[in-house]
Amino acid sequence: MAMIKVYDINKKEVDKMKVDTKILDKKVNEPVIQQAVRMYLANKRKGSANTKTRAEVRGGGAKPWKQKGTGRARAGSNSSPLWRKGGVTFGPKPRNFHYSLPQKVKDLALRSAVNVKYKDDQIVLIDNLVIKSGKTKDAASVFSKFCQDKKVLVIKDRMDENTARSMRNLPNIRVISSANVNTYDILAHNILFSDKDSFANFSNRMMNKA
Fold this sequence. Notes:
The protein is an alpha/beta fold. The chain folds into two domains: 2-31 and 99-209, Ribosomal Protein L4, Chain: A, CATH 3.40.1370; 46-96, no CATH class. The chain is built from six helices and six strands, in the order ββααβαβαβαβα. The chain has a six-stranded mixed sheet. α1 (30-44) packs across α2 and α3 (136-146) crosses α4 (161-167).
């Protein structure tokens, strides 16, 4: 079993959490992580870039001038890609960049990302994350004790209204449920921060897919 320290809101160690070594084994599969991150970024692309072909631009009906005798180059349409305001040759058209990886590959990438944080001692567990006042400055004070100005991914399954209000204006904090944690979000943040119950749910999710 791997052991992770559990702190209270004042950064005092109050417990240790056991996590199965099938999850936290310090093994990192970098090629699989790369595949998962590329998939995530590709799936975020809208693919809405669009240019008009010569058939779609306005005009192009009449021949600009007669074929011979003017001394100018032959032209059949002002929608030609050679002309200003003409169509675009081989320009981008709307497309779907979405693709998926096998589920086992995605699960392995997720475990590897968690182990990156575990190896670097960047997992912070707290016994209970509650900001009763609902004030942003109080939430900022809590995170400054553990993370200072670093980017933090907070795993939190159930959150009361005051706690949610206190964290929503913190620029470096992203809150996500244990069911929605993904490889990219883990690696895009410096610290993986969670309360004990939410991390247990996250561990069970990974354990079921190990």
